[in-house]
Amino acid sequence: MSEAARLRIAVLASGRGSNFEAIARAVAARSIPADLSVLVTDRPGTGAEAIARARGVETLCLDAREHPGRDAHEKAIVSALEQRQVGLVCLAGYLRLLGSAFVGHYRARMLNIHPSLLPAFPGLHPQRQALAHGVRVTGATVHFVDEGTDTGPIVIQAAVPVRGDDTEETLSARILAEEHRIYPEAIRLFAEGRLAIDGRCVHIRE
Length: 206
Ligand code: GRF
Description:
The protein is an alpha/beta fold. It has six helices and nine strands. The longest helix has 24 residues, at 168-191. The chain is globular and about 50 Å long.
């Protein structure tokens, strides 16, 4: 891919930022053939922002409270991403539901990571849901984002065993290690132009 056509990635995060860091590390190591253009947060003082600063990645805090109304806030994000010619949006612990205009704008160009084997346990506290349900195996899923909550076409999944003595914390930590592996991998496949969406299914081209 020529420099002019090189993919530009934005990460949207609201919290700790460990997935953002895994992505930034993979980009810096050139495992992902793309540029990490900007980290966008929706609140000040996140862990993700501190990581971005330490790594020299541009950060943009578009505080939702300063853009009242979801549409206004999302328009501000789209405008910032368009200015930077972002071609892939990666949600990494972004705690806001996105409206249909935003989702439509980045259809097939927006990924999310969720700490369960979707379609099991979408939404909030999936690790807690898995423990409460008594499953023996759970995991992590990278998927394209559609209008539903964690319902979009699945790119990569990783399975993680649930142990009898697991707490939400121990299970979350085991899943997180897999998240940090599969999210950069899915982004690499996207950047290489190898993902083809066919209805609910994502085909990975050789
Ligand atoms: C991760 O478990 C991710 O799957 C979920 O939110 C958490 C974010 O963690 N969507 P971090 O901020 O990337 O450390």
